[in-house]
Amino acid sequence: MALSTDSPVFYENCFNLIHCMKNDSYIICGDFNLVVDPNLYHNYKHIANPKARQFILNSIEDRQLSDPYRELFPSQKDTLGGEQI
Q: What is the pTM for the complete model shown?
């Protein structure tokens, strides 16, 4: 499943694999290829991949995940390579 499509299948598969490991703690690193909080970007124009985004938001809440960068800099505004999104 291409990450550029609005399908949570890729993310579902990742979280299912993590669940099968039966670890209490884990670190997920990388680019989810979507914006979790559009309010933190200067040039964000619309919600891309809303179904995949909602799956990630639900997974973050259900699994009590946190973003260490956002823990340190909760309101830091970012740009996405200077592109209009």
A: 0.75
Choose among 46, 70, 78, 63: nearest CA to 12. 63
Answer left, alpha or beta for residue 10, where phi above 0 means left and psi between -120 and 50 means alpha.
alpha
Name the residue ranges covered by the structural domains of the chain: 9-72
**How far apart, in whole angstroms, are the C-alpha atoms of residue 47 and residue 37?**
9
* Strand ranges, E, within 1-85: none
Distances (CA, A) of 1 to 14, 15, 17: 12, 15, 16
Tokens of 43: 């040039």
* Residues 33-85: tens digit of each pLDDT: 778 888 887 777 788 889 999 999 999 999 898 888 888 988 888 765 554 44
Question: What pLDDT score does 1 carry?
Answer: 55
Q: What distance in Å separates the CA atoms of residue 60 and residue 37, rounded to the nearest whole number?
A: 12
